[in-house]
Amino acid sequence: MMTRILFTLSLLGCATITAFSQGVYWESTISGNADEKTRVDKAYYMPRMVKIVQGDDGEEVIIRLDKEVMTMVDHSKKAYQQITFAEMEQFMKGASGEMDAQMEEMRKQLEQLPEDQRKMAEQMMGSGMMRKEPKVESRNTGETGTISGYKCTKYMVMMDGKESSTVWASRDVKEFGVMRKDMEDFARRMKAMMPAGKGGVTGAMEGIDGFPMQTETAGGWKNVVTKIESRSTPESEFEAPSGYRKDKPMMMGGEGE
Predict the structure, then answer these.
(1) Structural domain boundaries of the chain?
(2) Lowest-confidence region among 132-136, 137-141, 144-148, 197-201
(3) For residues 95 and 101, is the Cβ–Cβ distance under 8 A?
């Protein structure tokens, strides 16, 4: 879930629209998850602040660029978790470094096997586990279409030459203009959190020109924006709810309960 949200926010950072508005609100239909029913997410933006409310359950993710902190709210438990960008960066680099070390050790062990046994082992474990960071890039297909009333251009995000996801982006979403710089800053910050060579996907998003009206992955997950409008949202909506319990983030060793 968190990966998809960060992926979407990275996409938003690629827009090159220059119109101005104070705040933006949009709704998206999310489908294609095997373990989830189709849902409608709601997103609220004010300068340096973004909040995404996920479906009827009301779970929220709040990004405060001004405070460099992310808040995850669970209304069903009346609890929330918070993590700073610095803490997230430390975790992501640590987790990636540990995985890289394990993969390197596995490669060394496989190199000692006879070639036929090594190839068999690689096939059993999956070639994706054994190869290094894939090459990721975005391509403008030149194909156009209309989604939710907005003219869009189709982009392909490729991973090692194979289609990873499809993005239909529009340059006609005037309400999105004020978001551009903030989301570019967020995308750059997320890319900087990654160890060297690990920010390929975020980097590929920089080649997408416009607001992502529809995003679909090769695995079938689909996000379609159905409504966008200018709207001002009080700053209090971008804070953890008063009276809620503060839990330690799961990625920091908390149980989230």
Answers:
(1) 2-92+134-245
(2) 197-201
(3) no
pTM: 0.73
Identify the DSSP state of 148: T
Interior/surface letters 231-240, b for 16+ CB within 10 angstroms, e for the rest: eebeeeebbb
- What's the CA gap between 64 and 109, in Å, rounded? 45
Which residues make beta-bridge pairs with 30? 39, 223
User: Given the structure tokens 């059993």, which residue do they identify?
Assistant: 124
Question: Strand 79-84 to strand 245-247: parallel, antiparallel, or no bridges (unpaired)?
Answer: parallel
Q: Can you give the pLDDT at residue 187?
A: 75
Residue 136 pLDDT? 81
Report the distance separating Cα 217 and Cα 158, nearest Å: 11
Q: Which residues contact 252 (CB under 8 A, 6 or more apart)?
A: 83, 87, 91
Give the H/E segment covering residue 48.
none
Residue from 150, 157, 153 nearest 142 by CA = 153
The CATH superfamily assigned to 2-92+134-245 is Lipoprotein localisation LolA/LolB/LppX (2.50.20.10)
For 108, the 3-state DSSP assignment is helix
pLDDT for position 42: 95
